[in-house]
Amino acid sequence: MKVHNNYENDSWEYIGTIGVDSGQMMLSDPSYVKHFAESDDVVKLNEVIKNGSDNSYSYLGACSQSNTPQQAGVLVNDIGAEMGIVCSSGFGDGSYPVYVKRHNFSNGGKRVVEMKIEFVNEEQWSDVRIISNHQADYLKGEQE
User: Fold this and answer.
1) Which of 3, 124, 128, 138 has the largest CB neighbor count within 10 A?
2) What is the mean pLDDT of residues 15-43?
């Protein structure tokens, strides 16, 4: 998919911060969240993190996809509809700034056209020596 730069003249506007406590971030329609499946099956969690095999719209699926080599993936429901996107949050837990770009359309007024979350910036890069909780658990399991 080609990324277009149609809004390069519009500036990023800070809108707030988002908290992360699982080393990952998910983007999904709020109306879908009631269908998000939770799990406390630690054995299965460690299994799907190791092999990246789960892409279900669930906590297991999110952990599995954010710990693949791509550190991101699509989460689907039982019939394969894409319900959300998940990714690793850079170097783990914390509070991260969120920005949007708004574009003024002649007939539609100002609309949000892009959103970004900054997990790591260039200044932080040299100071960071940590990994996410899930990645630490995965690496610990590999060594056992």
Assistant:
1) 138
2) 92
142 contacts 67 by C-beta, under 8 angstroms: no
Residue at token pair 């952990």: 63
Those residues with Cβ within 8 angstroms of residue 132's Cβ, 6 or more apart along the chain or in another chain:
23, 24, 66, 88, 89, 91, 92, 93
The radius of gyration of the chain from alpha carbons, rounded to an integer in Å, stands at 17
Of 2 and 13, which is predicted with more confidence? 13
Tell me the CA end-to-end span of the chain in Å, nearest whole number.
40
3-state secondary structure at position 64: helix
Any idea where the domains of the chain sit in the sequence?
A: 12-143
d(CA 138, CA 41): 15
Q: Is the Cβ–Cβ distance between 96 and 83 less than 8 Å?
A: no
Read off the tokens for 113: 């056209």
Reduce the secondary structure of 13-45 to three states and give it as a string.
Answer: EEEEEEEECCCEEEEECHHHHHHCECCCCHHHH
Task: Examine the pLDDT at 98 and tell me if it is beyond 80.
Answer: yes
